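Q: Okay, next protein. This is Dynein heavy chain AAA 5 extension domain-containing protein from Rotaria magnacalcarata. I've checked the sequence twice, so it should be correct. Can you predict the 3D structure?
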Amino acid sequence: MNNTFLAMAYFHLLGPVDAVWIENMNTVLDDNKKLCLMSGEIIQMSAQMNLIFEPEDLEQASPATVSRCGMIYMDPNQLGWRVFKDSYIQYELPVSLPKEARELINDLFEWMVDPCLEYLRAHCKFQLSTSPIHLTFSLMRLYTCLMDEIAGSGTTGPDGKAYAELNANTMLLWLQGLFLFSLIWGLAGTITGDSRRKFDTFLRDFLTGALEEYPKPKSIKFSKANIFPERNTCFDFYFEKKAAGHWREWPDMIAREDLAIPEGVKVVDVIIQTDETARQAFFLETFVSHNVPLLLVGPTGTGKSAINNYFLVRLPKE
């Protein structure tokens, strides 16, 4: 902290602004720039030294702290989702993924996300209004949660579950299918029923090359198994991670024992298994097992609480 040091120096503090320690920084933020330590020592900072705080929000910051700082606000529309995508691919994807797989995931994002977001904004109605960045975050969270078998290929997970070794071709096919599934539910999971049919038509035309303005990158090779069947809509299928991967309807996920009604059970406690209950149970199990919060949205009386309670009572007692 020599005052003869002429070059500008920046202390970049990334994280929440804690109300306790940030108050001790107020003297540093004043014009005299004096750092007062708990020991009673006072350190004079030079005029070339600056502090940069990068918090998620200012919930814990006091007016005294905020008034001593200049503020740079990044508008979500100007910031865009690509900076988060770059960080996601570099830091949050499984470290075991090879370079080829990471390049494929980047190409999938670049090819599909913008056209889908634009179509959803212009032609679809959301039950819950969200920003494009939030929708892209939802895609990333779901995609990460579905990669357990890929991330642990040939190893044993922390829960003791052994994962089979995947060859390179199978891994790439799974990554494509899982990305498509994550895109459907991450970006379009909260649109209305009529909008789902519109989005299904758009997505099928997009994947089959009917929309010439969105040419498919050479690295992406969708096989027939990677694209959901023509019957019903894309929301009626889930991607099963077996063999080369294929799409199955939600009722196929319901176990035979779940179809039986236990003796003596009260009528109000009976859950009739349908494709909708299978969908909700899948997302509940996927997100809860990965410590990801989720919100079920829907009209009153559609079974949200009943399905949640049914899922919770079936969790391991430990």
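A: Here is a summary of the prediction. Residues 67 and 211 are 52 Å apart (CA to CA). The radius of gyration is 25 Å.
Q: Noted. On to the next one.
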